[in-house]
Design brief:
The protein is an alpha/beta fold. It folds into 2 domains: 131 residues, Nucleotidyltransferase, domain 5, CATH 3.30.420.40; 68 residues, ATPase, substrate binding domain, subdomain 4 (Actin, Chain A, domain 4). 44% of the residues lie in helices and 15% in strands. The protein has 9 helices and 7 strands. The strands form 2 sheets. It has a 5-stranded mixed β-sheet, sandwiched between helices. A hairpin with a 4-residue loop joins strand 1 and strand 2. Bound molecules: adenosine-5'-triphosphate and magnesium ion (MG). Magnesium ion binds next to loops. The site of magnesium ion has 5 residues, from loops.
């Protein structure tokens, strides 16, 4: 039902839908190698509202799931514990956040961060270490939930290529390290590879889904994209054709 509603709203905005692709499969398309998928790998896309996972073994997808915790929960925890406005909490997470809080500070003054409070003009000092204890607690919960998913899938001990992280929250410093320590399997951050032209700006785990969708379109040769006559060209599959169609979409979107 939620999907039907989504399809309706997208169509109302004048955009045609050619295919629906599960987010972690799209991200996997951008960051996993054929070897990862053959050996056994789990793609973990940590977004804002959810963490989407997909397990690939022997080249195919064997398990997918949505864990209802993502980056927004980290921000909400900070807001709640430190009584900060939401945007301050988001700023603190992105600027000072770390999934491993480490040892309590010896330099207490150096540990202090000055932030705005909910009262205009009033400032508050908070401890960077306390901030990261909050972040670490939530990060550990996410790792535990990922572990439960691995167990539930029946592929525990069968993922030699380990975990590949994508999504905006994969950028949280030391999240990969925490995961490696807790799960005892390889963990790496997946950045879209083999990009041409836009390489610098898309070189981030945040763009894995977007880049993966483009690749998906290229690989599956979505014939419906663009006007009908375009789908009769000789170059039906591959980047060339999708690039032409992508330019077509851009033309439609831009004023
Ligand atoms: N440098 C960073 N450090 C920590 N978290 C970050 C960083 N940059 C972005 N984030 C977090 O990433 C999240 C957004 O990620 P992403 O763009 O992948 O989500 P989304 O795809 O929109 O959401 P969802 O997948 O849940 O639908 C936000 O919670 C944001 O705070
Ligand atoms: Mg996402």
């Amino acid at each position: 039902m939620a999907i039907q509603n989504l399809i309706k709203s997208v169509q109302k905005s004048g955009v045609e839908i050619d295919d629906l692709v599960l987010q972690p499969l799209a991200s996997g398309e951008a960051v996993l190698t054929a070897e990862d998928k053959d050996r056994g790998v789990m793609l973990v896309d940590i977004g804002g509202g959810t963490t989407d996972v997909a397990i690939f073994v022997q080249g195919g997808v064997w398990h997918t799931s949505v864990i209802p915790v993502g980056g927004n929960h980290f921000t909400n925890d900070i807001t709640y514990v430190l009584h900060t406005p939401h945007n301050t909490a988001e700023y603190l997470k992105i600027k000072y956040g770390s999934a491993i809080a480490g040892e309590p500070p010896t330099d207490v003054a150096g540990d202090q961060i000055e932030i705005d409070t909910l009262t205009v003009g009033e400032q508050q000092k908070i401890s960077r270490h306390l901030l990261n204890e909050i972040v670490q607690a939530r990060a550990e919960q996410v790792v535990e939930m990922i572990y439960n998913e691995i167990k539930r899938s029946g592929y525990e001990g069968m993922l030699p290529a380990g975990i590949v992280l994508t999504g905006g929250s994969a950028q949280l410093p030391r999240f990969d390290e925490l995961m490696r320590e807790m799960l005892g399997i390889p963990v790496r951050i997946g950045v879209p590879s083999d990009l041409h032209g836009l390489a610098d700006s898309l070189d981030s785990p945040s763009y894995a889904t977007g880049v993966g969708l483009l690749r998906w379109g290229a690989r599956h040769g979505l014939a419906m994209i663009g006007s009908p006559h375009q789908s009769h060209g000789g170059e039906r599959n591959g980047w060339g054709n999708v690039y032409e169609r992508f330019k077509g979409w851009l033309r439609e979107f831009l004023p």
